[in-house]
């Protein structure tokens, strides 16, 4: 069968039934492709997008399930860890001085300094600094004495049952004696800031 392009001349939509078979075939293929394309765009593409969202949601739900299953399977272990953490926190709170113990801390620092062979020039509280869950209580300290006595002093402060940190060390030679040194530092202790009941 030889292709004859002239059979596509003078085609009118009013009499499609009288078109040649080749023209009807081309029209049928065109309409089929058009229907498939519009159907894909109108129905299937939306369904594919929804399917992809469902797959993503399924993955999220599976991950959430795995996490919750892990927690549920280890619930007793987590409870034991929580009790242990609460005990540790309570022990740490006990090592913070309460408001009645803070004056005794100055006595302890004075005792430690004098037994280490140091003379106090200055030992005084500074204004409290309020933080989120605790209050910082700074103490300015200035002592004079030999270098090795400073090491004993710092070591004994670290051994106190309360939490005391040392900051801002400045060591200078004393004014009248080259053998004696002057140490300025700031000690900080901390107090738990209890919630204010209104």
UniProtKB/TrEMBL annotation:
Keywords annotated in UniProt: Membrane, Transmembrane, Transmembrane helix
Pfam families the UniProt entry points to: PilO (PF04350)
Sequence intervals crossing the membrane: 21-43
Keyword Membrane part of the UniProt annotation: yes
Protein name: Type 4a pilus biogenesis protein PilO
